[in-house]
Amino acid sequence: MSMITVEVKFGKHIKNMFIFSGDRKKIVMTYVTLKAWGKSLDIGGELTIEVQCNVRQALADSAGGYAINFQQDRSSDINGMSLHFKPIGPSSTVVLNTLSKGKWGQETQMQDENVKQIYFENPFKLKLKAISKDTVHVYVNDKFKAEYVCTNQDITETRYIIFPPFVSIHPL
Hints:
Blueprint: E1 3-10, E2 14-21, E3 26-33, E4 46-53, H1 56-60, E5 68-71, H2 76-79, E6 81-88, E7 93-100, E8 103-104, E9 108-111, H3 115-121, E10 124-130, E11 135-140, E12 143-149, E13 160-163, E14 167-171
Antiparallel strand pairs: 1-2, 2-3, 3-13, 4-10, 4-14, 5-6, 5-13, 6-7, 7-8, 7-9, 10-11, 11-12
Protein name: Galectin
Organism: Mytilus edulis (Blue mussel)
Keywords: Lectin
């Protein structure tokens, strides 16, 4: 299956990717480079962003949720995803996972009774603190939520944040 990617600038630093696959499906994702924001994720360092879901109610009730991906490249096919962060409203969970060499790692699920309110209805602060090259602490609104091991991935090599166009992110 052939894939064609077209990029369109959206704002000062944020760009949209339109990915057309051989079966004519169009996938739209938005991305930003950490470099454009003057940010990085070094061992002992933190990366903090504000996240807002702009289609709150419809998505909060959807089993699919939305994902924010921290990647080395724009394409997950090349080097995978160091961290896949996915709130899912109906199950009141946030899924953390890693994609490496085309295979998903061991999924970690954070249970949170306020998923719809925190991740869909209001902007929230997502903070990642790199503990080592493959381990990150995840904080939401300054509360520790999980220690996650990015199997076969180096979280400090994150260069891109990939997210759907109905989600807004801003550096803090």
